[in-house]
Amino acid sequence: MRKQSKAIHGQLPRSQYNEHSSPLFLTSSFVFDDAEHGEMLFTEQKDGNIYSRFSNPNNSEFIEKMAMLEGVGDGFAFASGMAAIFGGIAAFLNNGDHIVASKALFGSSYQIITQILPRWGITHTFVGSDDPALWEGAIQDNTRMIFVETPSNPGLDLIDLEYLGALKKKYNLLLNVDNCFATPVLQNPVAFGADLVTHSATKLIDGQGRIIGGVVVGSEKVIAPVRFFARHTGPAMSPFNAWLLSKSLETLFVRVKAHCESAMALANALESNKHVEFVRYPFLPSHPQYELAKKQMKMGGAMVSFGPKGGARQAKQFINALEMLSLTSNLGDTRTIVTHPATTTHSKLSKEDREQVGITEGLLRISVGLEDVNDIIADIEQALEKSK
Ligand code: PLP
Question: Which are the contacts of 145, defined by CB distance < 8 A and separation ≥ 6?
Protein backbone atom coordinates (compact mmCIF):
# COMPACT_ATOMS: atom_id res chain seq x y z
CA MET A 1 0.00 0.00 0.00
CA ARG A 2 1.06 3.58 -0.62
CA LYS A 3 1.16 6.16 2.18
CA GLN A 4 -2.32 7.56 1.47
CA SER A 5 -3.83 4.06 1.79
CA LYS A 6 -1.74 3.20 4.85
CA ALA A 7 -2.99 6.37 6.56
CA ILE A 8 -6.48 4.90 6.17
CA HIS A 9 -5.80 1.21 6.87
CA GLY A 10 -2.95 1.45 9.41
CA GLN A 11 -5.00 0.81 12.52
CA LEU A 12 -4.95 -1.33 15.64
CA PRO A 13 -5.59 -5.07 15.30
CA ARG A 14 -9.31 -5.84 15.65
CA SER A 15 -10.58 -6.80 19.08
CA GLN A 16 -12.99 -9.67 19.80
CA TYR A 17 -15.85 -7.32 18.83
CA ASN A 18 -14.75 -7.13 15.18
CA GLU A 19 -15.06 -3.36 15.00
CA HIS A 20 -14.32 -1.71 11.63
CA SER A 21 -13.02 1.55 13.08
CA SER A 22 -10.49 1.67 15.95
CA PRO A 23 -12.05 1.80 19.43
CA LEU A 24 -11.11 4.44 21.98
CA PHE A 25 -9.05 3.24 24.96
CA LEU A 26 -9.98 5.62 27.75
CA THR A 27 -8.01 3.94 30.48
CA SER A 28 -5.34 5.38 32.76
CA SER A 29 -3.51 2.09 33.19
CA PHE A 30 -3.30 -1.47 31.86
CA VAL A 31 -3.59 -4.73 33.79
CA PHE A 32 -0.64 -7.13 34.12
CA ASP A 33 -1.28 -10.83 33.50
CA ASP A 34 0.58 -11.75 36.68
CA ALA A 35 3.37 -10.56 38.97
CA GLU A 36 6.08 -11.68 36.53
CA HIS A 37 4.44 -9.86 33.60
CA GLY A 38 4.32 -6.57 35.54
CA GLU A 39 7.94 -6.98 36.58
CA MET A 40 9.01 -7.79 33.02
CA LEU A 41 7.21 -4.72 31.59
CA PHE A 42 8.87 -2.40 34.10
CA THR A 43 12.36 -3.85 34.19
CA GLU A 44 12.91 -4.89 30.59
CA GLN A 45 10.77 -2.10 29.11
CA LYS A 46 9.40 -4.63 26.60
CA ASP A 47 6.49 -3.83 24.30
CA GLY A 48 3.24 -3.60 26.20
CA ASN A 49 1.16 -0.86 27.75
CA ILE A 50 1.64 0.05 31.40
CA TYR A 51 0.19 3.50 31.96
CA SER A 52 -1.27 6.07 29.52
CA ARG A 53 1.36 8.67 30.43
CA PHE A 54 3.89 6.31 28.75
CA SER A 55 1.80 4.71 26.02
CA ASN A 56 -1.75 3.85 25.00
CA PRO A 57 -3.05 1.91 21.95
CA ASN A 58 -4.67 5.05 20.47
CA ASN A 59 -1.46 7.04 20.85
CA SER A 60 0.52 4.16 19.31
CA GLU A 61 -1.80 4.02 16.30
CA PHE A 62 -1.51 7.77 15.71
CA ILE A 63 2.28 7.76 16.22
CA GLU A 64 2.81 4.79 13.91
CA LYS A 65 0.86 6.52 11.16
CA MET A 66 2.76 9.80 11.60
CA ALA A 67 6.11 7.98 11.60
CA MET A 68 5.09 6.06 8.47
CA LEU A 69 4.04 9.29 6.74
CA GLU A 70 7.40 10.92 7.54
CA GLY A 71 9.36 7.79 6.57
CA VAL A 72 10.72 6.86 10.02
CA GLY A 73 10.12 4.17 12.63
CA ASP A 74 9.14 5.81 15.90
CA GLY A 75 7.73 8.87 17.65
CA PHE A 76 5.99 10.31 20.69
CA ALA A 77 2.67 12.19 20.81
CA PHE A 78 2.43 15.30 22.99
CA ALA A 79 -0.43 17.34 24.41
CA SER A 80 0.36 20.28 22.10
CA GLY A 81 2.68 21.33 19.31
CA MET A 82 4.65 23.43 21.81
CA ALA A 83 5.04 20.47 24.19
CA ALA A 84 6.39 18.51 21.19
CA ILE A 85 8.81 21.29 20.27
CA PHE A 86 10.01 21.66 23.85
CA GLY A 87 10.28 17.88 24.33
CA GLY A 88 12.21 17.43 21.08
CA ILE A 89 14.72 20.06 22.19
CA ALA A 90 14.90 19.46 25.96
CA ALA A 91 15.42 15.70 25.49
CA PHE A 92 18.80 16.41 23.90
CA LEU A 93 20.31 19.72 25.01
CA ASN A 94 22.40 20.05 28.17
CA ASN A 95 23.80 22.95 30.10
CA GLY A 96 26.53 24.54 27.95
CA ASP A 97 25.07 23.41 24.61
CA HIS A 98 24.20 25.72 21.73
CA ILE A 99 21.31 25.59 19.26
CA VAL A 100 21.21 27.19 15.80
CA ALA A 101 17.71 28.13 14.68
CA SER A 102 15.97 29.90 11.85
CA LYS A 103 15.13 33.51 12.64
CA ALA A 104 11.62 33.16 11.26
CA LEU A 105 9.99 30.97 13.91
CA PHE A 106 6.56 30.58 15.47
CA GLY A 107 6.30 33.00 18.43
CA SER A 108 6.34 30.39 21.22
CA SER A 109 9.29 28.51 19.67
CA TYR A 110 11.13 31.82 19.69
CA GLN A 111 10.21 32.31 23.37
CA ILE A 112 11.49 28.80 24.30
CA ILE A 113 14.82 29.50 22.62
CA THR A 114 15.29 33.07 23.88
CA GLN A 115 13.64 32.98 27.33
CA ILE A 116 13.52 29.40 28.62
CA LEU A 117 16.61 27.58 27.31
CA PRO A 118 19.02 30.29 28.58
CA ARG A 119 17.82 29.53 32.14
CA TRP A 120 19.53 26.14 31.75
CA GLY A 121 22.65 27.60 30.16
CA ILE A 122 21.68 26.73 26.57
CA THR A 123 22.66 29.46 24.13
CA HIS A 124 21.45 30.10 20.60
CA THR A 125 22.21 31.79 17.31
CA PHE A 126 19.45 32.75 14.88
CA VAL A 127 20.08 32.69 11.15
CA GLY A 128 18.10 34.44 8.40
CA SER A 129 16.83 31.84 5.98
CA ASP A 130 18.10 33.33 2.75
CA ASP A 131 21.90 32.98 2.97
CA PRO A 132 23.18 29.37 3.29
CA ALA A 133 26.72 30.52 4.15
CA LEU A 134 25.41 32.09 7.37
CA TRP A 135 24.27 28.69 8.64
CA GLU A 136 27.75 27.21 8.61
CA GLY A 137 29.16 30.38 10.20
CA ALA A 138 26.71 30.04 13.10
CA ILE A 139 27.94 26.59 14.14
CA GLN A 140 30.14 26.55 17.25
CA ASP A 141 32.09 23.78 18.98
CA ASN A 142 29.20 23.33 21.44
CA THR A 143 26.39 23.36 18.83
CA ARG A 144 24.24 20.27 19.20
CA MET A 145 21.05 20.95 17.22
CA ILE A 146 19.71 22.89 14.23
CA PHE A 147 16.02 23.75 14.62
CA VAL A 148 14.10 25.19 11.67
CA GLU A 149 10.62 25.90 10.46
CA THR A 150 10.03 25.69 6.70
CA PRO A 151 7.86 27.21 5.34
CA SER A 152 7.92 29.72 8.16
CA ASN A 153 4.93 31.17 9.99
CA PRO A 154 3.70 33.67 8.76
CA GLY A 155 6.29 34.97 6.26
CA LEU A 156 6.40 31.72 4.23
CA ASP A 157 10.19 31.83 3.93
CA LEU A 158 11.83 28.55 3.01
CA ILE A 159 15.04 26.92 4.16
CA ASP A 160 17.03 24.60 1.94
CA LEU A 161 16.65 21.25 3.68
CA GLU A 162 19.16 19.48 1.44
CA TYR A 163 21.80 22.04 2.39
CA LEU A 164 21.01 21.70 6.11
CA GLY A 165 21.03 17.90 5.81
CA ALA A 166 24.60 18.05 4.46
CA LEU A 167 25.63 20.58 7.13
CA LYS A 168 24.32 18.52 10.03
CA LYS A 169 26.18 15.49 8.66
CA LYS A 170 29.44 17.43 8.34
CA TYR A 171 29.27 18.69 11.95
CA ASN A 172 27.48 15.67 13.44
CA LEU A 173 24.47 17.67 14.68
CA LEU A 174 20.80 16.84 15.15
CA LEU A 175 18.52 18.44 12.56
CA ASN A 176 15.03 19.09 13.92
CA VAL A 177 12.38 20.41 11.48
CA ASP A 178 8.99 21.88 12.41
CA ASN A 179 7.02 20.52 9.43
CA CYS A 180 3.69 21.97 10.56
CA PHE A 181 3.00 24.18 7.53
CA ALA A 182 3.91 21.56 4.92
CA THR A 183 2.57 18.37 6.55
CA PRO A 184 4.08 15.01 5.53
CA VAL A 185 1.91 15.13 2.40
CA LEU A 186 3.95 17.99 0.91
CA GLN A 187 7.41 17.63 2.44
CA ASN A 188 9.42 14.88 4.15
CA PRO A 189 12.41 16.46 5.93
CA VAL A 190 13.88 13.03 6.75
CA ALA A 191 14.48 12.49 3.01
CA PHE A 192 16.91 15.45 3.21
CA GLY A 193 18.65 14.23 6.37
CA ALA A 194 16.48 15.50 9.26
CA ASP A 195 16.70 13.44 12.46
CA LEU A 196 13.56 14.77 14.13
CA VAL A 197 10.36 16.00 12.53
CA THR A 198 8.02 17.97 14.78
CA HIS A 199 4.38 18.79 14.16
CA SER A 200 1.67 20.81 15.77
CA ALA A 201 -1.13 18.29 15.15
CA THR A 202 -3.56 21.08 16.05
CA LYS A 203 -3.24 22.41 12.49
CA LEU A 204 -3.68 20.44 9.26
CA ILE A 205 -3.20 17.04 10.93
CA ASP A 206 -6.52 17.51 12.77
CA GLY A 207 -7.63 19.91 10.09
CA GLN A 208 -10.99 20.59 11.67
CA GLY A 209 -10.15 23.03 14.46
CA ARG A 210 -11.16 20.66 17.26
CA ILE A 211 -8.15 19.76 19.36
CA ILE A 212 -4.63 20.65 20.49
CA GLY A 213 -1.84 18.12 19.94
CA GLY A 214 1.73 17.61 18.80
CA VAL A 215 4.09 14.86 17.74
CA VAL A 216 7.81 14.26 17.25
CA VAL A 217 8.96 11.45 14.95
CA GLY A 218 12.38 10.00 14.11
CA SER A 219 14.29 6.73 14.11
CA GLU A 220 13.92 4.44 17.12
CA LYS A 221 17.39 5.45 18.30
CA VAL A 222 16.69 9.18 18.05
CA ILE A 223 13.27 8.90 19.72
CA ALA A 224 14.54 6.87 22.74
CA PRO A 225 15.67 9.99 24.69
CA VAL A 226 12.47 11.83 23.70
CA ARG A 227 10.40 8.97 25.11
CA PHE A 228 12.48 8.91 28.31
CA PHE A 229 12.04 12.67 28.74
CA ALA A 230 8.29 12.54 28.07
CA ARG A 231 7.64 9.43 30.17
CA HIS A 232 9.10 11.10 33.24
CA THR A 233 7.95 14.69 32.71
CA GLY A 234 4.41 13.82 31.58
CA PRO A 235 3.39 15.91 28.54
CA ALA A 236 1.65 13.00 26.74
CA MET A 237 -1.28 13.49 24.38
CA SER A 238 -4.65 12.28 25.68
CA PRO A 239 -5.84 9.01 24.09
CA PHE A 240 -9.05 10.77 23.03
CA ASN A 241 -7.09 13.29 20.97
CA ALA A 242 -4.90 10.54 19.51
CA TRP A 243 -8.03 8.61 18.49
CA LEU A 244 -9.47 11.70 16.76
CA LEU A 245 -6.15 12.53 15.10
CA SER A 246 -5.68 9.03 13.77
CA LYS A 247 -9.11 9.34 12.14
CA SER A 248 -8.11 12.76 10.76
CA LEU A 249 -5.08 11.20 9.06
CA GLU A 250 -7.44 9.08 6.96
CA THR A 251 -8.43 12.25 5.08
CA LEU A 252 -5.11 14.13 5.29
CA PHE A 253 -4.04 13.60 1.68
CA VAL A 254 -7.35 14.66 0.11
CA ARG A 255 -7.71 17.60 2.49
CA VAL A 256 -4.18 18.94 2.01
CA LYS A 257 -4.45 18.72 -1.79
CA ALA A 258 -7.75 20.62 -1.74
CA HIS A 259 -6.31 23.27 0.64
CA CYS A 260 -3.33 23.74 -1.71
CA GLU A 261 -5.42 24.06 -4.87
CA SER A 262 -7.57 26.77 -3.30
CA ALA A 263 -4.55 28.54 -1.77
CA MET A 264 -2.87 28.64 -5.19
CA ALA A 265 -6.04 30.09 -6.75
CA LEU A 266 -6.28 32.71 -3.98
CA ALA A 267 -2.59 33.64 -4.35
CA ASN A 268 -3.11 34.20 -8.08
CA ALA A 269 -6.26 36.26 -7.47
CA LEU A 270 -4.49 38.42 -4.88
CA GLU A 271 -1.52 38.95 -7.16
CA SER A 272 -3.77 40.51 -9.79
CA ASN A 273 -5.80 42.57 -7.29
CA LYS A 274 -5.18 46.32 -7.58
CA HIS A 275 -5.44 46.87 -3.80
CA VAL A 276 -2.66 44.40 -2.96
CA GLU A 277 0.95 45.46 -2.42
CA PHE A 278 2.58 41.98 -2.26
CA VAL A 279 1.65 38.31 -1.99
CA ARG A 280 3.74 35.49 -0.48
CA TYR A 281 3.00 31.92 -1.53
CA PRO A 282 5.75 29.31 -2.08
CA PHE A 283 4.36 28.11 -5.42
CA LEU A 284 3.91 31.60 -6.93
CA PRO A 285 6.73 32.21 -9.46
CA SER A 286 7.20 35.63 -7.80
CA HIS A 287 8.22 33.98 -4.48
CA PRO A 288 11.97 34.57 -4.09
CA GLN A 289 12.48 30.88 -3.31
CA TYR A 290 10.11 29.47 -5.93
CA GLU A 291 12.75 27.04 -7.30
CA LEU A 292 13.54 25.75 -3.82
CA ALA A 293 9.81 25.36 -3.10
CA LYS A 294 9.43 23.19 -6.22
CA LYS A 295 12.46 21.13 -5.17
CA GLN A 296 11.44 20.29 -1.62
CA MET A 297 7.63 20.62 -1.57
CA LYS A 298 4.99 18.85 -3.66
CA MET A 299 2.48 21.74 -3.52
CA GLY A 300 2.54 25.21 -1.96
CA GLY A 301 0.55 24.59 1.24
CA ALA A 302 -2.61 26.07 2.75
CA MET A 303 -1.17 29.42 3.87
CA VAL A 304 -1.06 32.65 1.88
CA SER A 305 0.35 35.91 3.26
CA PHE A 306 -0.21 39.30 1.72
CA GLY A 307 -0.12 43.01 2.38
CA PRO A 308 -2.78 45.48 1.22
CA LYS A 309 -1.60 48.73 -0.39
CA GLY A 310 -3.06 50.74 2.52
CA GLY A 311 -0.70 49.04 5.06
CA ALA A 312 -1.67 48.66 8.73
CA ARG A 313 -4.74 50.91 8.37
CA GLN A 314 -6.18 48.86 5.52
CA ALA A 315 -5.22 45.52 7.11
CA LYS A 316 -7.43 46.29 10.13
CA GLN A 317 -10.30 47.64 8.05
CA PHE A 318 -10.02 44.61 5.74
CA ILE A 319 -10.41 42.25 8.71
CA ASN A 320 -13.47 44.13 9.92
CA ALA A 321 -15.05 44.08 6.45
CA LEU A 322 -14.83 40.28 6.02
CA GLU A 323 -18.13 38.42 6.09
CA MET A 324 -17.30 34.72 5.82
CA LEU A 325 -13.68 34.37 7.00
CA SER A 326 -13.04 33.64 10.68
CA LEU A 327 -10.89 36.01 12.72
CA THR A 328 -8.95 33.66 14.98
CA SER A 329 -5.34 32.69 15.61
CA ASN A 330 -5.53 29.03 14.54
CA LEU A 331 -4.69 27.72 11.07
CA GLY A 332 -5.13 24.58 8.98
CA ASP A 333 -8.90 24.36 9.53
CA THR A 334 -11.77 23.56 7.16
CA ARG A 335 -12.81 27.20 7.65
CA THR A 336 -10.75 29.95 6.06
CA ILE A 337 -9.07 32.07 8.73
CA VAL A 338 -7.51 35.52 8.69
CA THR A 339 -4.83 36.49 11.20
CA HIS A 340 -2.98 39.76 11.81
CA PRO A 341 0.35 38.32 13.07
CA ALA A 342 1.89 41.63 14.27
CA THR A 343 -0.86 42.16 16.87
CA THR A 344 -1.66 38.52 17.73
CA THR A 345 0.51 35.40 17.14
CA HIS A 346 3.78 37.36 16.90
CA SER A 347 2.94 40.30 19.18
CA LYS A 348 5.47 39.17 21.83
CA LEU A 349 8.35 39.82 19.43
CA SER A 350 9.81 43.31 19.33
CA LYS A 351 8.82 45.42 16.30
CA GLU A 352 12.43 45.20 15.10
CA ASP A 353 12.53 41.38 15.38
CA ARG A 354 9.21 41.16 13.55
CA GLU A 355 10.38 43.36 10.73
CA GLN A 356 13.57 41.33 10.28
CA VAL A 357 11.40 38.36 9.34
CA GLY A 358 8.96 40.33 7.20
CA ILE A 359 6.12 40.64 9.75
CA THR A 360 5.10 44.20 9.00
CA GLU A 361 2.09 45.92 10.56
CA GLY A 362 0.23 45.46 7.26
CA LEU A 363 0.90 41.73 6.86
CA LEU A 364 -2.14 39.45 6.81
CA ARG A 365 -2.05 35.67 6.97
CA ILE A 366 -4.79 33.61 5.37
CA SER A 367 -5.23 29.94 6.22
CA VAL A 368 -7.18 28.77 3.20
CA GLY A 369 -9.98 26.41 4.16
CA LEU A 370 -12.14 23.93 2.30
CA GLU A 371 -15.11 26.15 1.42
CA ASP A 372 -15.88 26.70 -2.30
CA VAL A 373 -12.83 28.68 -3.43
CA ASN A 374 -15.08 31.19 -5.24
CA ASP A 375 -16.64 32.13 -1.89
CA ILE A 376 -13.21 32.54 -0.29
CA ILE A 377 -11.95 34.80 -3.07
CA ALA A 378 -15.23 36.76 -3.23
CA ASP A 379 -15.14 37.56 0.50
CA ILE A 380 -11.51 38.66 0.37
CA GLU A 381 -12.07 40.77 -2.76
CA GLN A 382 -15.11 42.55 -1.32
CA ALA A 383 -13.23 43.29 1.92
CA LEU A 384 -10.26 44.69 -0.02
CA GLU A 385 -12.62 46.90 -2.04
CA LYS A 386 -14.44 48.16 1.09
CA SER A 387 -11.22 48.84 3.01
CA LYS A 388 -9.26 50.51 0.16
N1 PLP B 1 4.68 25.37 15.11
C2 PLP B 1 4.04 26.17 14.25
C3 PLP B 1 4.65 26.43 12.92
C4 PLP B 1 2.81 26.74 14.60
O5 PLP B 1 2.18 27.53 13.73
C6 PLP B 1 2.27 26.47 15.87
C7 PLP B 1 0.98 27.08 16.31
O8 PLP B 1 0.42 27.92 15.66
C9 PLP B 1 2.97 25.66 16.75
C10 PLP B 1 4.18 25.12 16.33
C11 PLP B 1 2.46 25.38 18.14
O12 PLP B 1 1.48 24.40 18.14
P13 PLP B 1 0.35 24.24 19.30
O14 PLP B 1 -0.50 25.44 19.21
O15 PLP B 1 -0.33 22.96 18.90
O16 PLP B 1 1.05 24.14 20.59
Answer: 89, 92, 93, 97, 99, 100, 173, 174, 175, 176
What does the DSSP assignment read for 174-187? EEEEE-TTTHHHH-
**Residue 266's closest CA among 297, 302, 298?**
302
Report the alpha-carbon distance of residue 207 to residue 282 in Å, rounded: 20
112, 89 Cβ separation under 8 angstroms: yes
Listed in sequence order, the DSSP H helices in the chain are: 3-9, 35-44, 57-70, 81-90, 107-111, 132-138, 161-171, 183-186, 220-233, 239-249, 252-271, 290-296, 311-321, 351-356, 373-387
Give me the pLDDT at residue 17, please: 96
Q: Which pLDDT value is given to residue 347?
A: 82
The CA-based diameter of the chain, rounded to the nearest angstrom, is: 74
- pLDDT recorded at residue 45: 66
19-31 residue pLDDT tens: 999 999 999 999 9
Atom of ligand 1 nearest to the CA of 82: 16
Q: Residue 236: what are its φ and ψ, rounded to 5°?
A: -65, 150
Task: Return the ligand 1 atom nearest residue 329 CA.
Answer: 8
- Residues with CB under 6 Å of ligand 1 are 80-82, 106, 108, 149, 153, 178, 180-181, 200, 202, 212, 214
CB half-sphere exposure, 27, CA atoms < 13 A:
13
Q: 81-118 pLDDT, tens per residue?
A: 999 999 999 999 999 999 999 998 898 999 999 999 99
Chain-centre distance for alpha carbon 322 = 27
Q: What counts of helices (H) and strands (E) characterise the chain?
A: 15, 12
Residue 272: pLDDT over 90 = yes
Q: Rounded distance, CA 354 to CA 143, Å? A: 25
How far, in Å, is the centroid of ligand 1 from the Cα of 169? 27
Distance from the alpha carbon of residue 82 to the mean position of ligand 1, in angstroms: 6
pLDDT at 165 over 70: yes
Distance CA 302, CA 263 (A): 6
